[in-house]
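Record 1 of the preview.
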Amino acid sequence: MAVSLLAQRPNTNYDESKAARYPLPALLDGKAWPERRAEILKLYETHVFGNIITAKLPVETTVKAQGPNWREVTFTFSGEGKKKAVNVLIVVPPGAKKRVPAVVCLSFTPISTVLAGHSRWPLDVFAKHGFAVITAHYTDFFPDVKQGRPDSILALLPPDETTNAMSAWAWGMSRMLDYALTQRDLDGKRIAVAGHSRLGKAALWAGATDQRFAAVISNDSGEGGASLSRRIFGEHVADLNASFPHWFTEKFKSYSQAVNDLPVDSHMLLALSAPRPLYVASASEDLWADPLGELLALTEADKAYEAIGAPEQTAYHLRPGKHDITAYDWERYLRFLKATLR
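->
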């Protein structure tokens, strides 16, 4: 069995017959969706992702470099007597004659690698489908280390701000959207948010907290993202809290050994995208992220879409291979966005 070796516990379960049987928290709970959605959002804020950042930091934008169909823009945020610079790359399809739709998606590698042809950024596929790419190196918003807060965007916020990396990354994607909405070559009504792995978790949270994103895409986001925590398959809440204590709120740590006490599960996070288009994808060898758990969660989230009269707005695929985001994945995401964002 080919699985990720990252931070695995000796008793990690990969046996489907041993997956937990679980009652899921009620998705709709007999309430109208706007009311129930607000409740679920607050539960995620309190128990999982931490405070939604509402501070309005002053920001200056400067075009740092540009080419025939791309530009690098520096965002300089200010707060608490400090400044923080973030470099954002925008790549539009060559020769575009009108406003184009776009995907906001943070990068695991510096933005120079995107233009250099990194396999996770098949710019030819984006161009073929007429989509722009808007990206930044995710560590510019919050360095992905346990002691990253002093060098993160959170250092510019009041000291009583208690949120953590996931909310900082989601906040960063919303600021990228702010800028995109001012650009004449981008169609502000057709901008999706996407992410892979930990950044897939952040993308789901960004989509939940900022409904201006027209669609939401999760690629192999796994535990804390699209997969059901209560299945006890692959990565566990305890693994997240042990290896990445800076990702989530302190309250989330109390569920490491009591996951069934968590008042939410991933079907509820996915449902927060409704009624907007939502695509979840998995990889067949990525058992750490629990592909079946991701599919089951999406199936449950569909109940919210059906309840509000927005069926057929979700999609799923299981790609052969390992934990990654590939041209195969992007091809399907962009086809889906073309079909749903009209």
